[in-house]
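I'll show a record.
***
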Amino acid sequence: MADIVQGGEPSGGQVVFAQIEPTTRCNFTCGFCSGRQMDQSDLALDDFDRLLAGFPDLEHIELQGEGEPLLHKHFFVMARRARARGIRLSMITNGSLLSAERVAGILDVGMAAVNVSIESPEPAAFQAIRGGRFDKVKQGIARLLAERRARGLQAPVVGFAITVLRETIDTLPRIAELYAELGMDGGATLQPLSRMASYKGVYDAATAAQLLEPADEQRMWRLVQATPALKAMAAAGSQSSHFYPALSRRFAPEHGCPWVRGGLYVDRHGAMTTCCMIKDSAVYGIGKLGITPVEAVLAQRREIDAALTAGEPPAQCVGCGYYRSPERRAQTRRRMLQQLNSQQAAVKPE
């Protein structure tokens, strides 16, 4: 099958980015989390080794899935084995387990980027949403940054991963203030609560009420643009060395999904899917570590890439924020052409 080269790198390439789910266990109780509805289990070290052996072109691994990765007893064993291969590492954590010992482990292994999940910087709202203590998370972030400075290191960059709820939009500027107060430098990703079926299926009525409508999203982005500190934090996030922005910059196809060009998701059972948003590997999986030939995995990714390019997203991709329909692509091209024409008119000699 010929490589597809419509924007970004070609689709026939190897897996360069992989997100690995160490565990589905977590010490928080976020109502929008799919992991709480899954079996509570950990990735076997043998499966991690199979991943490293099966995909020799790996450059970046994200050690995070539906649970809190630092709860895996072999988290740092996996991290060291990946780093021994020269693979860049990043992670998302809820921040509550950043003890002195774990901070030392993160710095010792040479983690490139750490993002901490947050929705609100207000202690009461934080606890209501996440089921954890805001002050403990704040202390953990401060500890990580202080020890990094004490060692004279530049990495990991430390930022926020923000899931935006309808009731938390107006607290975004205060998250930017917290970011500045702590001296964080990894920027922030802003992700509205997902509308994909794989996520919505676990929402109760109260959580579903927090989904952003188009008007809410417009209000959110207006707030970002109107708040210099928030705008700068979001811009820094888009250029971060963290897994998601790095994947999106490296593989930027016209249809919007970078995963099918260079990424792979592996859950705690060693089941592979094309991305982190797909939760039902029994239905939508593309193989299992140690069983499925690598070329068969790559072939399935190419098929999905072709379907997205053709404007025919498979069921598991419907509702994904990455995907751009042919109509959206055409709108983007028209907008870019209009901007180009405006720029040319502005510099046209008299």
Summary: The longest strand covers residues 157-164. Confidence is low (pLDDT under 50) at residues 1-12. Residues 153 and 284 are 41 Å apart (CA to CA). The beta strands are 17-20, 60-63, 88-93, 113-118, 157-164, 188-192, 263-266, 271-273, 287-288.
